[in-house]
Amino acid sequence: MTNSYWLLALLVVPLVGAALVMLVPKANETLAKQLALLISLVTFGLTIAMCLEFVVAKAAEFQFAYSISWVSNYNINFALGVDGIALVLIALSTSLVPIVLLAGWHDADGARGTVRGYVALILVLEAAMVGVFAATDLFLFYVFFEAMLVPVYFLIGRYGGPRRNYAAVKFLLYSLFGGLLMLASLIGLYVVSGNLTGHGTFDFTSLAALSIDPTTQKWLFAGFFIAFAIKAPLVPFHTWLPDAAAESTPGTAVLLVGVLDKVGTFGMLRYCLELFPDASHWATPLVIVLAVIGIIYGALQAIGQTDIKRLIAYTSVSHFGFIALGVFVMTSQGQSGSALYMVNHGFSTAALFLIGGFLISRRGSRLIADFGGVQKVAPVLAGTFLVAGLSSLALPGLSSFVSEFLVLVGTFERYTWVGVVATLGIVLAALYILLMYQRTMTGPVPEAVAEKVHDLRGREVLAIAPLLVVIIALGFYPQPVLDVVNPAVDRVMHAVGSTDPAPQVAPVAEGTHK
Amino acid sequence: MSPFSGAVTHAAEAAPAVTAATGTFQLIWLLIALPLVGAAILLLAGRRTDKWGHWLGLLASTASFVVAVLLFVAMLGQSDDQRTQVQHLFNWIAVGTFDVPVDLRLDQLSMTFVLLITGVGSLIHLYSVGYMSHDRDRRRFFGYLNLFVASMLLLVLADNYLLLYVGWEGVGLASYLLIGFWFFKDSAAVASKKAFVVNRVGDVGLSLAIMLMFVTFGSVSFEGVLGSASKGSQQSMTWIGLALLLAACGKSAQFPLQSWLLDAMEGPTPVSALIHAATMVTAGVYLIVRSGAIFDASLPARNAVIVVGAITLLMGAIIGCAKDDIKKALAGSTMSQIGYMILAAGLGPVGYAFAIFHLLLHGFFKADMFLGAGSVMHGMNDGVNMRRYGALRTVMKVTWITFMMGWLAILGIPPFSGFYSKDKIIEAAWSVSPVAGLVTLVGAGITAFYMTRLFAMTFHGEARWTDDVHPHESPWIMMFPIAILALLSAVAGFILNLNNAFVDWLKPVTGLEEPQLPFSSAVLPIAAIILVLIGAVLAWIPYATRAVPEVAPAGNLLTRAARADLYGDAANEAVFMRPGQYLTRWLVWFDNRVVDGVVNGTAATIGGLSGRARRLQTGFARSYALSMLGGAALVAAALVLVRL
Amino acid sequence: MNPANYIYLSAVLFSLGAFGVLVRRNAIVVFMCVELMLNASNLAFVSFARIHGNLDGQVIAFFVMVVAAAEVVVGLAIIMTIFRTRRSASVDEANLLKY
After folding, report:
1. Could you tell me the residue ranges of all domains in chain A?
2. What is the pTM of this model?
């Protein structure tokens, strides 16, 4: 098999770029930012070109495969490759980075660390994010999974808000704890594969083909699942997220919640389900209960928050409940919906965090109570915030609706009452978004708001506009993404041995009666 | 098994054949695209379009109306079985067997709505050019109006339930934006949010209905669902029907989700006329009539619809009797009239066509009266308190006469419009259940009371204006649309009822059955007219011939309850809002102290233990040496022991 | 002569050294005791080399000597510096590196 260099390029370009950025003199902050933006745009351009090369018909296979031997003693390969799901998530990551850099142009000014350090860390993070989605060797996946923590830890700890140290350490400890369990399972998996086939391997496809004894599966599954549940995060492992998101800069929050956390749900879909099908079925009731609790609990928490960023973080807890639910209901609608939801949630949360960030940096406060009547003084800001919020509450016609509805339909097919309870989440979603909008954007204008809050500037509009365009476009025409995702989901469905339930009444087109 | 004795009847006609749109019918998408483009330009281009934005909005809506008329003419040229035209635009969502295209369906039912929406919509656009002329955000207003028209058209043109859902929430969004148009007023912002959230509760119903349809039929298209509705189990059909009813309750402000409509009057008056009287709030009726096949297959679902319609009919009428705010009185009336339509839709094929007939005529006369109310407010410094009106017939002649047309129409005095549809609904209701029939009859009497009260308080009696008010007639740009609507209120019913033209037009879609009455069909119209006259006289005497107190008297128990919207808000507050607030507050505490507390507690415990442990580091080199020696001895001992 | 006797001697020397490290306060004396322990272990290594008839122990003894020499240089330098600042060579007084 010949190696394809697309994915390697996506890894190397941001890494080399980060090194170049660090060579820029410390005082020349603008140059560092411009260079970083340029590099992220080049990476995004490469991603687009790669997506065009992607063969949709074979989206279930790992394309653009690249593999060289890394640690030959343990049969570890530096192996990359993407299926449909990984492809769209990589596209999400590389498209968000330039937006984050542009929107957060002044985020790092006056922070404890240098500006060039900030943008370089973001580029390093980008490489790690590409790596974690592209890895087809489990050991390599683990390495990237943990490597992501390093830039994020510094991004929060050096460039964050007043309680940044607490938030950064909390984030790190939570993630390391999960990572440790995953490492244990990973080693276990290696040993099991060695016992079953005679030579241990970390290669995903070979591992997925193994039929592991159900009891062993459960233990190995637990290690992976807890790591992913912390990352995603599912209730009750979620409390690091509001702290981390609230204390980091808006840009970091976007990458953290929009992309990093997707590794959790991506991992559930790709690794938990395909590697441990029996254990996944065994754990399904528990996961579904956790997911539904997460949907309702996250939404209720969001309603009760007084801090804009924490509120947005809790909406994500609720949305991750939906994604996890879709993954584990084992229907093609649910899983395709989840995969699409990961993308859509990335864009709509990015818009919410960034616009919320603009608002907060103007007023100098994160408290909802300090705002009011912003629509009067900054109509464009308010309008974009509303669109982002409507996407978050899954208004039909905007992208999140398609994915949320698919998840709900997928759930309802198999677990009627779970579907009903999850559907109640849409009322709560309307409440948390519109309450926040009402309290911040409408009503009389307080003096402090009138003085400090001004409308979006050109750079900010430039950063936000692509997000809103994508949100609307994917709302009306999500099929291209679904076409890429569906074959990969079918592969997962096949691996876990599930098929969609048939309707009670046979469709008319087939002309058969019940 | 049910209080209603009507038998379940299935639509007599088979579902009409579907024709792929060709020729003129390929313009269907333009109906939606025109106002959508208008909205996009007005909302994206911002203040640059301030000067001519309202004309663009009017143009977009009118152009859509012109297309609608073209399509209508083309449809008239087709035979009955060629009139259901479906235009396929593109594939929207396809996962596994869940395959939803973006298809538009134009048949007699949606054609009726399209004409109503674009026609009345364009008139109200024109009216708004005058009504909103002093508002510096007039362009934004027209942007929202265009958005509404586009969404509403999508709602009625969609060929499957999921696409209908897009329009369904789209109109909800437009309604949210327009109720909160004057967002700098807290009351408007709160009312708009309330409207959206209550509507969302209804939307849960629609979501569940769609999911149930997919699970039951493997399809969400009208053809796939309605075509096999008779094959589904009774239980499934009942659940789908109830879920659809919940959706209809939210959008059409029916009991128990009625509370948002009265607050929605915070929006500018043209909005109340277009969205909260003529079109959007009637979407629930459309949904039920469109889904007739499902209700035909389930008697319990149908009975639930009748009960909801009947309760709301009476509630709205009672609330309407007690309100002094002209817009809220009209809003109560809207609730009540939609109650009529919902009730009619619950009657089955005897009622479907008349529900739509009443909906259309109500669209004319209620829009006429709302715009008339706007004209009155325009002349009265935006005052809405009818106790401060009176004797306006002297200074606002045109408004008075046009309003009178609407008044006579809603009363159901022949030959004005309301008579033809309401009378048929009463007749159909009697044929299904005497209880429902009685409710509709009594409702007609109460309607006469509150509408006459409103009319008399506003235009007759003595002038009770405050000194700073100088009532005057509104400009032609506002009066012209009112005049047209007044004309329609006066004659549309009569014309459309000639040879049963309207009902025959709808029949292929909705089906039709003649109501079977145990007595002569002449009894009901006469009884209705007598009740209406009694109601009207009862209101006329105190409000037109005697002095109306400028401060409302305390009133009896019922009046006070009606003023408080029959405690709908109080109930919501006590049952949902307060407990909800406590719950979220408690949960935030729980999350911070308990869930996070466990984590932080673990961290603190480890920190405390290590704080103790580090005391071992005394700094004395010799004690370290001792512990090293001890450790080495232990290791050595262990080695020796293991060896043994 | 029984090679085991060398081992016993080594053990005695090592114990003496360890005892000295634990009870004496003067840094120089402690240092000397450490040297004593090192040389005791050297003796043991060489004896084992003799007993087992290979050169491994002797090689390690040379390593230990080299390390000991390096340690003497660094250790004495530290003691000198501490003595200069504190005018004392007591190990108990240099106790700031704690907790």
Report:
1. 276-496
2. 0.89
